[in-house]
Amino acid sequence: MPEISRHGAPIWVDLTVQDLPASQRFYSEVFGWEFHDAGPDFGHYQRITKDGHQVGGMMRAMTQDGQPLEAPSVWTVYLESQSIEETVHTAREAGAQVMVPAMAVGEMGTMAVLIDPAGAVVGVWQRGTFSGVDLPLSPGTPVWFESMSVNIDAALPFYREVFGWEPEFMAEDGTVVVEPHDGVRYPYVTANIDGETVAGLCDAREWFDHSQWRWYIGVEDADATAAAILARGGSVLDGPMDSPFGRVATVADPEGASFQINQPPAP
After folding, report:
1. DSSP calls for 64-90
2. How far is Cα 151 from Cα 204, in angstroms, rounded to an integer?
3. Could you tell me which of 215, 214, 88, 212 has the C-alpha nearest to residue 151?
């Protein structure tokens, strides 16, 4: 039976690619991922696991009639919905665009893809038999999800209204308050679902020209992983650098799909 839904929490992440075998080889060599073909009925969608844990998915960019589609390679983060039709309707009313309307994926669940009012693409998933990612926080698995927003004033009320986020605001020194005060803008918002911190929303106007969701993969050694990515045709866009949350880097695979790696801080 499916587990209890956590409406608004990240539940899945997947990658659309041009060269599926090459992408599988890259991620397998760097992170030790294994791929499981869902078969022709699902367009040979690849479910990714690491040591038996659900990590995400990968698929070849295709048109609806099964023809190859030239499209940017990109990771998409999905948030959970208890009622996807209601979520899509509420999202549209709150200023989102609907890229992909709600569509069933066999008995596994129902998906949709939105563009939030700040311009970030975000998926939606309502579970059926499939309950999404596992979060053991071990190397090679997801450890964090966040939206880097160029319009946090539009994004924050959207995620509050549509996904039930209960935000806390964090200053650069790590101080957390319930609401910003005295006109001070806090660069980071942590989203809470039933008291559990599940995602982040960053005021990224100083660093980005468009809004985007991104995710972090746990690694044992950020520097060694960055070197492995470079050696296999990927790129390092920023870092590795130390942060209060460990050593992090922004990287990209050989097709240019970017993501983050995170080496946890020493105990």
Report:
1. TTS-B-----EEEEEEE-SSHHHHHHH
2. 8
3. 212
Q: Which pTM value belongs to this model?
A: 0.93
Domain of 93: which CATH number? 3.10.180.10
Q: CA–CA separation, 74 vs 214, rounded Å? A: 10
Q: Residue 227 belongs to what domain range?
A: 142-263
Q: Are residues 67 and 100 in the same domain?
A: yes
pLDDT in tens, 56-103: 999 998 655 655 566 789 999 999 999 999 999 999 999 999 999 999
The token pair at 223 is 């520097």
pLDDT tens digits for 25-53? 999 999 999 999 999 989 899 999 999 99
Q: Are residues 34 and 119 in the same domain?
A: yes
